[in-house]
Design a protein that fits this description.
FAD/NAD(P)-binding domain; 25% strand; binds flavin-adenine dinucleotide; alpha/beta; 27% helix; 8-stranded mixed β-sheet
Length: 416
């Protein structure tokens, strides 16, 4: 079934009895051409582009829980391409371009909303850094404009401009940035991949790899062995644990990141706003909830929940930026496991095991990368060559000294 406005109207008039399941629920076959481990955003996008763009067949996505149960359904939904470094900026701009046509491509309303992002600056040095970043963005056509304090006062008058400690002096805006409904993205890719014949197998945990003579032959799962000459792993926060089963130790630490949502309020916040003097970012969902977050919890963990000291830190950031947030009641909070790489940038590469490919290290910025990550990983799996925007995301770059240190904090995963 194709989704359309006409279809919604037709179903509304006939009691909504004609909607079918979004995807099939197939049993695993004994063998496939390509297995993707992990049914999050990146795994599903990879399967979709493999089938649609790269003409591959006999593909399975193996997910230990249910589709969208990981970070794809836990993030704060921000999409943007306001990066600085050559290894990153073209990739994220490629992703932004894919976001702009995604809903037509997969025929699903993922609520992609280009409502803009504003990164606030609070000092002259920070302004200069943002100007440089804005210039780098223009080189790839990502756009970006520096806003003065007066311009900001018109757009977001509720901010605490004259805070004695963190006065707001201006901001860098990317108008094409915004938000997308996170689980809608997973469902859209899943449904489209299923329609192209991809087997989406839920409740199927990969517990090991079949490796013979240094070459992958398939995977061991809770539903039996499944063979394939190519296996792509896209399990985000579980990357180290899963790859350990193939005998690989990754340059990745897992940390918790929390998200917070307030009660529903009237429309107030026009786009995404990030505080430049601390780690705090906020937007408003279409249901009215203020959606915000801050730093990772700062210790290694595989728990999908966080601690109260980070809640306090995030609340302090919010109060410094926009004191009116103190009147809002917090409705929900949750955590997700972040695959923090050593330089804060991702990995899309082959591994020392022939036929085994890795997509990981997304830290807390992988949602916006979902389309480009899926596309680039599919490109690698199908052609054995990296996509032109992802050539820097090599697994051995830490060993060779070619890190992509976007934030300039060195090999400190807890600081990215
Ligand atoms: C609170 C929070 C806020 C965030 N905010 C943003 C944001 O605003 N913008 C942004 O760009 N990014 C954000 N992120 C980061 C983003 O969500 C992640 O980087 C991205 O979703 C990770 O890729 P994924 O979607 O494939 O991961 P996931 O959805 O986690 O997918 C990985 C899947 O692998 C499965 N899996 C694990 N082990 C196995 C196994 N052994 N066998 C089979 N399956 C397995 C898991 O169950 C999971 O479903 C945020 C993350 C969190 C937690």
């Amino acid at each position: 079934m194709r989704f359309s406005g006409f279809r919604v109207l037709q179903q509304a008039l006939t009691g909504h009895k004609g909607w079918g399941a979004l995807w099939r629920d197939p049993a695993p076959k004994p063998a496939y051409d390509i297995i993707i481990v992990g049914g999050g955003g990146h795994g599903l996008a990879t399967a979709f582009y493999l089938a649609k763009t790269f003409g591959q067949a006999r593909i399975a996505v193996l997910e230990k829980g249910w589709l969208g149960s990981g970070n794809i359904g836990r993030n704060t939904t921000i999409i943007r391409s306001n990066y600085l470094l050559p290894g990153n900026q073209p990739f994220y701009e490629f992703s932004m371009k894919l976001w702009e046509t995604l809903e037509q491509e997969v025929n699903f309303n993922a609520m992609v909303s280009q409502r803009s992002i504003i990164n606030l600056f609070h000092s002259d040095g920070q302004r200069d850094a943002y100007r440089r970043r804005g210039n780098a963005m223009h080189l790839t056509g990502a756009g970006g404009e520096l806003l003065s304090q007066d311009q900001l006062r018109e757009i977001v008058p509720f901010l605490n401009f004259d805070n004695a400690r963190f006065p707001i002096k201006g901001g860098l805006r990317q108008s094409r940035a915004g938000t997308a409904r996170h689980d809608g993205v997973a469902w859209g890719y899943a449904r489209a991949a299923d329609q192209l014949g991809v087997d989406l197998i839920q409740h199927c945990e990969v517990t090991g790899f079949l490796i013979e003579g240094g070459r992958v032959q398939g995977v061991q799962t809770t539903r039996g062995d499944i063979r394939a000459p190519k296996v792509g792993v896209a399990v985000a926060g579980s990357s180290s644990r899963v790859m350990e089963r193939a005998g690989l130790r990754l340059p990745i630490e897992s940390h918790v990141l929390q998200a917070f949502v307030s009660e529903g309020l009237k429309p107030n916040i026009p786009g995404v706003i990030t505080f430049g003097a601390g780690h705090f970012y906020i937007s408003q969902s279409d249901k009215g909830g203020l959606v915000f977050g801050g730093d990772i919890d700062g210790y290694n963990s595989y728990a999908q929940r966080g601690n109260l000291d980070v809640l306090q830190d995030v609340a302090q950031g919010g109060m410094a930026l926009m004191p009116m947030i103190g009147r809002a009641r917090l409705l929900r909070s949750w955590g997700g496991i972040m695959d923090m790489s050593m330089d804060g940038s991702p990995i899309i590469d082959r591994t020392p095991v022939e036929g085994l490919y890795l997509n990981a290290g997304w830290c807390y910025g992988g949602f916006k990368a979902t389309p480009a990550s899926g596309y680039a990983f599919a490109h690698l799996l199908a052609t054995d060559r990296p996509h032109e925007t992802a050539t820097a995301y090599r697994l051995d770059r830490f060993h060779r000294g070619y890190v992509i240190d976007e934030k300039g904090v060195g090999a400190q995963p807890n600081l990215h």
